[in-house]
Amino acid sequence: MDLGPFDADNSVSCRLSSHIPDVCKTEDCCLGIDEAGRGPVLGPMVYGICFCPVSKKDDLKDLKVADSKTLTETERENLFQKLDEARSYIGWALQILSPNTISTSMLQRSKYNLNALSHDTAIGLVQYALDSGVQLTEVFVDTVGPAEKYEEKLSQLFPGVKVTVRPKADSLFPVVSAASICAKVARDRVVKGWNFAEQLGEVDSDYGSGYPNDPKTKAWLLKYLDPVFGYPQFVRFSWSTAQTLMDSKSVTVHWDDDDEDGEKAAQRQNNRSMLSYFSASSGANDQTPAHQPHRFFTDRRLKSLDAL
């Protein structure tokens, strides 16, 4: 599994895939869908598909794949190796959804919740398999939201394919278990080798499970909260855990809007308007700046302007 394309820019989502076995282009195939990392406040969510000919279901079962959550990291790695060694009849694909993609999607002006993002990602992976020539006749999915509605939605989108959506499908159908293993192995590797674009120096990698209720995760979030610029892109800043910490620990800033009178409203609250951060410093010029700008601005080549 080459994670290079995602490591090169982990601020955006990325699709990775195996070679498509020739037999999957000529025989009826089944496909499983599952995800890893839906709940953590740290790191990406990874959606995975795994597919093989219907005639090879027993062979897949003989590999003793299981729900990835019931396996140790070593067991998952060993099973992924077995799946990779069976590349003559097993294929897989992954969609790595970066923390930045998840948060900006959820906080955009037109609401795009995690369930909708999950559905669209799963649909995109099924379409990828079809576009790659995989002869899909059966799809098995671990449900997101009401199983019946999700099953109906997928059945309408992919007529001619028998769709089965079930809670805990990763423990019921080996092909979903295999997808679960692919997704979890990818997420574990990405989290362990995360490239911090923010140049934080030697970053403490002891961030626990990444789940909001983990004490180690909470301690890490407090340690790496910048009071002005918030969190590195490793953190899903749309999660309530991150938002609560930012609200309580960060510098208070007044955001101008149409319902308030900007700077005056900020002054009444003994606060600073966001616009004040972009205004020219009194007595300063381009040659002798009052202070060095934060790398947030220099990385994006942003400068204060006196006039447009």
TrEMBL record:
Cofactor: Mg(2+); Mn(2+)
Gene Ontology BP term (one): DNA replication, removal of RNA primer
InterPro entries noted in UniProt: RNase_H2_suA, RNase_HII/HIII, RNase_HII/HIII_dom, RNase_HII_hlx-loop-hlx_cap_dom, RNaseH-like_sf, RNaseH_sf
Cellular component per GO, a single term: ribonuclease H2 complex
Entry EC no(s): 3.1.26.4
Residues noted as binding a divalent metal cation in the record, renumbered to the chain: 34-35, 142
Start and end residues of each RNase H type-2 domain: 28-251
Keyword terms, alphabetized: Endonuclease, Hydrolase, Metal-binding, Nuclease
UniProt cofactor note: Manganese or magnesium. Binds 1 divalent metal ion per monomer in the absence of substrate. May bind a second metal ion after substrate binding.
PANTHER family according to UniProt: RIBONUCLEASE H2 SUBUNIT A (PTHR10954)
Role: Catalytic subunit of RNase HII, an endonuclease that specifically degrades the RNA of RNA:DNA hybrids. Participates in DNA replication, possibly by mediating the removal of lagging-strand Okazaki fragment RNA primers during DNA replication. Mediates the excision of single ribonucleotides from DNA:RNA duplexes.
Protein name, as recorded: Ribonuclease
